[in-house]
Design goal:
8 helices; Arc Repressor Mutant, subunit A; 43% helix; eight-stranded mixed beta sheet; 262 residues; Endonuclease, Chain A; two-stranded antiparallel sheet
C-alpha cells in the first residue's frame, strides 16, 4: 500500500527520500528533524535537505515551539496544487510550441528535394505505417511475401485491423512460401502477379505510393521505414517494374474468399 503511495508521489516529482520524509511527517505530525529522520529511516542531514525540497513544493511549514523549530506536513490536498502547476507548465510549453511550429515547419520544408526518412519500431509503429499505406490516394504498388510473418499479422484482433484496404488500387506482387495460402483481400482494382518464392525467398513488405517508399520487416523486432523522395521512389519503381516483368499473373482459387481473413 505504502509503495503505491510512494510511486504516486514520485510521479508528482518527489524523490524517493522526499516521499519517505513526507509520509513520516504525515504519520507523526509536527516534529523536529531528529524525530522525522528517525521515523523515515533517513539520516538527519539528508532529512534537512528533503524538508527544504518539500518546502519548495509547499508541502511543509515550520513554526517555533519553545526553543525548537518544528516542521509540519501540509495537507495532502496541496498535492493537487502541484498537479495544477505541472498542467500549467505543460499548457505554457504547448502554447510556445504552437507559436514556434510554423517557423520550424518552414525550415523543415525549405529544401523541397531532400529525402525525408521516418523510422518506426514495434507492432504499433507498423500499424501506423499500414494505416498510412491503405489510406493513400495514389496508386499503390506493393511487394510482399505470404509466410508465417504475414499470417501473424493477419491473425490480429479485429479491433487492431486496418480498415480501408478495399479502396486500394494498383499492383500487388506476391511471393507465396510453400505450405501457405494467400489470405483474402479485395482484388477489385488491383492487378496481382506472383514471383517464385523458391528462387527469391524473402520476408517483409515493400510498397510504393507516389513519392513515398514504405519498407516493413516483420522478422523478430518489427521495424519499418518511410522514405519520401521522388528520385528514390523512381529508382525503386524501376526495380519493381523489372520484378513485375518476370512475374506471372495470379488467379485466385475458386473457393477464395469463403473464409475471409482480411
Amino acid at each position: 500500500m505504502l509503495e503505491d503511495i510512494k510511486t504516486g508521489l514520485n510521479d508528482l516529482g518527489l524523490s524517493d527520500k522526499e516521499a519517505e520524509v513526507y509520509l513520516a511527517m504525515l504519520e507523526i505530525g509536527p516534529s523536529s528533524v531528529q524525530d522525522i529522520a528517525k521515523r523515515a529511516g533517513v539520516n538527519r542531514s539528508t532529512t534537512y535537505v528533503m524538508v527544504e525540497g518539500l518546502k519548495k513544493h509547499g508541502l511543509v511549514s515550520t513554526y517555533e515551539k519553545g526553543k525548537k523549530i518544528v516542521f509540519a506536513a501540509e495537507s495532502p490536498e496541496k498535492l493537487l496544487a502541484i498537479v495544477s502547476e505541472h498542467m500549467g507548465l505543460l499548457e505554457a510549453k504547448r502554447d510556445r510550441l504552437s507559436q514556434t511550429l510554423p517557423r520550424l515547419l518552414a525550415i523543415f520544408n525549405a529544401v523541397e528535394d531532400k529525402p525525408r526518412v521516418r523510422f518506426f519500431e514495434g507492432d504499433a509503429g507498423l500499424v501506423s505505417m499500414r494505416e498510412e499505406i491503405v489510406h493513400s490516394k495514389e496508386p499503390l504498388w506493393e511487394l510482399y511475401a505470404i509466410d508465417e510473418m504475414l499470417m501473424d499479422l493477419v491473425k490480429v484482433e479485429p479491433e487492431h485491423r486496418i480498415e480501408g484496404s478495399k479502396q486500394l488500387h494498383g499492383r500487388a506482387l506476391i511471393s507465396v512460401k510453400p505450405g501457405f495460402q494467400v489470405p483474402f483481400f479485395d482484388i477489385n482494382g488491383v492487378d496481382v502477379r506472383e514471383i517464385d518464392y523458391k528462387k527469391l525467398p524473402f520476408t517483409g513488405d515493400l510498397a510504393i505510393s507516389g513519392s513515398r517508399v514504405y519498407i516493413l520487416s516483420h522478422r523478430g523486432r518489427s521495424l519499418g521505414v518511410i522514405i519520401d523522395s521522388k528520385d528514390i521512389a523512381e529508382v525503386i519503381k524501376a526495380l519493381y517494374e523489372m520484378a513485375w516483368s518476370c512475374a506471372v499473373a495470379w488467379t485466385p482459387p475458386p473457393d477464395w474468399g469463403k473464409n475471409k481473413t482480411l
